[in-house]
Specification:
Helices cover about 40% and strands about 15% of the residues. The chain has about 260 residues and is an alpha+beta fold.
Length: about 260
């Protein structure tokens, strides 16, 4: 892989507690799976068959020696077995720890389906540079920015995390489009429709404060008005009750 641009390597460093969860997702109940040795390494390779252009996953796992007498020499675990699942929901041992991508995904979804995409979609600055997505985005109506294949792949699978704050992903063009005044470079009064909607919402929220009254003052006025309304209602109700009683007494006193 050295000095080539054909392959891309994603490296993740984690604690043994993370490796245990990966082992459980792969249904690995061996000692090295549930109690990972120090510096255990798991490699997942995405391979393409040159003949039929299908994609496969190959998994490798290994670790260095754990005692001084081993010289801490690293070796792959030749007895480790990857499992996959075919379209008929039948699990099988992958030959040479290699199986079609669909079978690998199917097995993981059956074994331990993820409840969030954060673990899959989170990328730090190094990986963001690797997928080469453009920073920021475009204004509505502007020409689209060129996107690398890696950037398109990421945005299709992680739409909620594909754009910076203030931008929204267009699911068709895969462009991050500005939907906030914070990223709009258009002067006030000439903003596009989306920007006007956002400003209208902001003005509606800010209207009580623009009258020179604080939030506490507004709340006090509302509460005071409610109390006055309750008192007036009670007074009217009492007056009606008294009039009704007086009328009844007058009828009883008549000979």
């Amino acid at each position: 892989m050295a000095n080539t641009k054909t392959f891309k390597l994603f490296h993740y460093s984690a604690h043994d507690t993370t490796l245990i969860r990966i082992a459980c997702s792969l249904q690995d109940t061996t000692n090295d799976g549930l109690l990972p040795p120090f510096a255990q390494t798991l490699v997942l390779e995405l391979l393409e068959n040159e003949k039929d252009k299908t994609f496969h996953v190959r998994a490798l796992r290994g670790h260095p020696g754990q005692t001084p007498d081993t010289g801490f020499h690293f070796a792959w675990e030749t007895d480790w077995q990857l499992k996959c699942m075919d379209a008929w929901q039948q699990a099988y041992n992958a030959v040479d720890n290699t199986c079609p991508v669909a079978d690998f995904v199917r097995f993981v979804q059956w074994s331990a389906p993820p409840v969030t995409s954060k673990g899959y979609c989170y990328l730090d600055e190094r990986f963001l540079q690797l997928i080469n997505c453009p920073a920021g985005g475009i204004q509505s109506g502007e020409a689209p920015l060129p996107l690398s294949s890696g950037c398109q792949y990421y945005r299709k699978r992680c739409p909620s995390y594909a754009c910076e704050r203030g931008y929204m992903l267009n699911s068709v063009s895969l462009q991050c489009v500005c939907v906030s005044s914070s990223c709009s470079s258009v002067s006030t009064g000439t903003r596009r429709l989306v920007g006007r909607f956002i400003d209208a919402d902001y003005d509606e929220v800010a209207m009580p404060q623009s009258s020179g009254m604080s939030s506490a003052s507004v709340a006090a006025v509302v509460l005071g008005s409610l109390c006055v309304g309750i008192l007036v209602t009670a007074f009217i109700t009492s007056a009606l009750c008294l009039c009704s009683r007086s009328s009844k007494y007058a009828q009883l006193e008549q000979p």
